[in-house]
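F.,

This is the one I mentioned.
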């Protein structure tokens, strides 16, 4: 199991939220089990007044409807710590008991899961916006070009691409 998968499996978002003193509201919010104020400094300069971040405890994922941040526990940790991916990976790697492969090399994590999620987001958009086929074809070509430039182990830029696609399509849908 790769380091990133192990982190996202063992580091629970609700535990990170509690560790950082975030007040969690439990309940049923669609597919989500908890909500809280967004810890990201980018979201309203860190002074959010309402709970716009929702956590799916079972899937160990989150999404903030205020700033469109979301994904896995490492991303949540990055928002709480206001740090970059490599710093978060370094800190969280120490919290999980990662055992290197038999040959002594740490396995690199492929960004394939993130690319599949990009595909899901794109597919959902076209299903909900069938009248925009020409726009979608042009936009999907731009996304394909960006994906082709990613290294298969470049998780940070794959997550950034996923976030930018979500934001762009959300803004496009709100028009």
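My design for it:
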């Amino acid at each position: 199991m790769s380091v990133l998968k192990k982190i996202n499996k063992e580091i629970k978002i609700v535990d990170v939220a509690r560790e950082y003193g975030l007040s969690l509201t439990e309940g049923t919010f669609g597919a989500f089990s908890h909500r809280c104020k967004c810890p990201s400094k980018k979201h309203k300069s860190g002074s959010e007044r309402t709970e716009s971040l929702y956590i799916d405890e079972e899937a160990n994922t989150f999404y903030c409807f205020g700033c469109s941040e979301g994904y896995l526990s490492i991303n949540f940790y990055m928002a709480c710590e206001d740090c970059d991916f490599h710093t978060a990976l370094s800190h969280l790697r120490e919290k999980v008991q990662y055992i290197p492969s038999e040959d002594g090399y740490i396995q690199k994590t492929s960004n394939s899961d993130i690319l599949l999620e990009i595909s899901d987001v794109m597919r959902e958009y076209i299903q909900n916006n069938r009248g925009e086929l020409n726009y979608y074809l042009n936009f999907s070509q731009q996304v394909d070009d960006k994906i082709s430039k990613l290294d298969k182990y470049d998780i940070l830029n794959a997550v950034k691409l996923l976030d930018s696609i979500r934001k762009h399509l959300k803004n496009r849908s709100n028009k």
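Residues 55 and 62 are 4 Å apart (CA to CA).

Talk soon.
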